[in-house]
Amino acid sequence: MPHPLVTSLYQQTTLPVIAAPMFIVSGPELLIAQCASGIVGSMPALNARPQSQLAEWLAQIEESLRALRGRDPSAVISPYAINHIIHGTNTRLDADLEVCARFKVPYIITSLRAPDDVVQTVHAWGGKVFHDVTTVRHAEKALEAGVDGLILVCAGAGGHAGALSPFALLNEVRRLFDGPVALAGAITHGHDVLAARAMGADFAYMGTRFIASEEARAVAAHKQMIVDARSSDIVYTPYFSGIPANYLRASIAAAGYDPAQLPQQKREVNAGTDDEAKAWRDVWSAGQGAGSIDTVLPMARIVRELREEYQARAMLLSEEFSSATAGAI
Fold first, then answer.
1. Of 294, 306, 289, 237, nearest to 267 (Cα)?
2. The sheet that has 80-85: what strands, in order across it?
3. I need a surface site. Which of 38, 83, 159, 255 has the fewest CB within 10 A?
4. pLDDT tens-digit series, residues 192-233
5. Total-model pTM
């Protein structure tokens, strides 16, 4: 039987997908469109600038989702998540959490450091915490902190990503944890979502595909660069943010750097600062899955196509297996 929280989320979605919160790119428009399409929507708290804008955005989100549910009570309008960077350099963390507490945000996604005291804060208002991890040790620390779910950010994921194969990390984490797990790393199609489920993950965690959506706040050139890119156009480097991340090679060159000769020394960039924002505005992120994205579409159509691909591949595999089994008998 699935974990109760997994069952609850399945009942509130039409596809087992959690949208990744993307710095600068994700805003209330994208999040609302994701929830309206039947997947868990998300955005980083740090995208609201100034900090006071976060309350305005959450009010907009709550009002919009309430209106969608009221318009059609039978429609599946999924819950949403707000991402927080749990790091000493994020001076907004306490203030942002206070705003989320006021709106009783249902899901919080935490990144970089084990969320420890944050878990208790979120649980106090009835929220759930999912934490980004790239290694088994990170997963162990997050579980010690009492998180409700894990997000395994594996090789090939956009933005800050790990270097481990999803097969390796997921199998080891499942020895420790039977609760909700989302899997990230070059997932762009419905059959990728099905593969993540077949491997033992409860959800796929997708970001890059949604950058190339009409509702995303990415500039048009960023979206087009993803459409034009191949997996070989993705560069994995710690230089720009201090933590290894995947970026589009062409954007690195456009910012005045030689992608083949990036300095080995990490830059020190504080979370939530203008310096960090400038780094991500000038050098654009994408995962290795960009190579299979060829068009910019509205979120509703993207999710509809994902769902159709998911269902078609599941049916095909079932038919192939049944046929092969019958032949063997």
1. 237
2. 17-19, 203-206, 181-184, 149-153, 128-133, 107-111, 80-85, 41-44
3. 255
4. 999 999 999 999 999 999 999 999 999 999 999 999 999 999
5. 0.93
